[in-house]
Amino acid sequence: xxxxxxxxxxxxxxxxxxxxxxxxxEYGEYCLLELKNGDYxxxxxxxxxxxxxxAGKFLRGTADTVDSEEVARWHSLDRYDxxxxxxxxxxxxxxxGPEEEGIRGAQFDGFKSFADRKNPKEEQxxxxxxxxxxxxxxxxxxxxxxxxxxxxxSSALASHSWxxxxxxxxxxxxxxxxxxxxxxxxxxxEKKLNKNPSVDPExxxxxxxxxxxxxxxxxxxxxxxxxxxxxxxxxxxxxxxxAPLHGKYVFGQIDKNYYDDSDIVTPWTEGTTAxxxxxxxxxxxxxxxxxxxxxxxxxxxxxxxxxxEKAFEKVKKDYRWLDKKMLxxxxxxxIQKVDGDLEFVRxxxxxxxxxxxxxxxxERFIECVEGDYQSAALAANKxxxxxxxxxxxxxxxxxxxxxxxxxxxxxxDYKVSVTAGDRVTGGSRDFFITPYCFEAKTYEExxxxxxxxxxxxxxxxxxxxxxxxxxxxxxxxx
Length: 478
Known about the structure:
The chain is α+β, with helices and mostly antiparallel strands. The chain has 4 domains: 6-175, no CATH class; 210-292, no CATH class; 296-379, no CATH class; 383-475, no CATH class. It has helices spanning 83-86, 175-193, 210-221, 230-233, 274-290, 294-297, 304-318, 362-380, 435-438, 443-453, 456-459, 463-466, 470-475, and strands spanning 10-13, 17-18, 30-35, 40-47, 56-61, 64-67, 71-76, 93-96, 106-108, 125-130, 135-142, 149-152, 159-161, 165-170, 241-245, 248-256, 263-267, 331-338, 341-348, 355-356, 383-387, 395-396, 399-409, 414-421, 426-433. The strands form 6 sheets. Strands 2-7-3-4-5-6 form a 6-stranded antiparallel sheet, with no helix packed on it. A 5-stranded antiparallel sheet has the order 13-12-11-10-14, with no helix packed on it. Strands 21, 22, 23, 24 and 25 form a 5-stranded antiparallel sheet that branches. The longest helix is centred in the middle third of the chain and has 19 residues, at 175-193. It starts with 9 loop residues before the first strand and ends with a helix. The model has no long low-confidence stretch (mean pLDDT 92).
């Protein structure tokens, strides 16, 4: 690696271009920026309009830009390869651009390295010397849940990974970094406040064990639902806990902050006494307990095969090629005791662990299994031919119809696959065209039955578009 001592290295940028002269970089060129307030940052140039004026912005990351009106001068970072210079161990000062009398430059030192196990502060925008000898910049984001991180420098989270960077030094603070500094300071203040939280005697008259409050609510619920249990109540998530917040204990729901795994406590605010909270717990868990009646859930007994056989036989009526071998890689089901209560559980394929599959009735469980069996059956039936109707632009509820394809399956049956999306997301769904549809004597009658499965108001194509399509009519055997 380079032999220069980065700890004593200074980079001097001396050949700046003035924005006031409307002397701007090439489109996309990444530049060191001196702002009109004297701060330094960096970004890639995106001109506005026809690109012939100084109007535009410098892109630093997703939703992170600097308007050209804020910039006094810029200096390209893309033009340099410092490899040869950095291999001279005597070097301590590197001029980037000629030093000329009367021209103000900018110097950067205080470089650090990940080799010394030093990271920038979160959201800190830094000047980078890359291991390939180039210069770059970016905003530091630590990887969640693992070592290392990346410097975000453009949209769509385009980044320089930490292991591509030889040395880094912070540029000026900005609003994003300032917000992160304030957030960290607030975390420290909160931690200090919560070392010895106060207790409101009216709110916590039954103590600081949340189960005491759940159990009192359980006693009330059993007056209406004799089958109620504590595990049933706690299926209603998120569960309530007792946690410190702003220096006092509260009833709250706790979520994890995505970025740093810290706790986010949302306090209960609908009352001021313990008994009011217990009444709230009764209403909060009421529907969950009501729909957990074991007599309804397990009305066909506790042998899982009884439920699976009912689902299999129902699916088999239409998906005539289905056999149980096709289900081996699909969901596997059982009935097990979980926290003292019987539950439907499932796992996928050869997964080791079952998880609770919470449904309110035996009928609903069988219906869900039917859906899984139908998907497994379609996946096992290869397509042998396809036909895609012609359609123009179709927009539904903000989603655009992208693909609508009929397929003939190896078994002689048919399905249709529909894909729709917007600018950032999308999805596909397959529909089996049941034999009932093909019992229709005419193509028009077939469409009436088919559109009950794939309605035009949901998926874009209706009788108006499909009835005149002679190729589709022929493809479907009419």
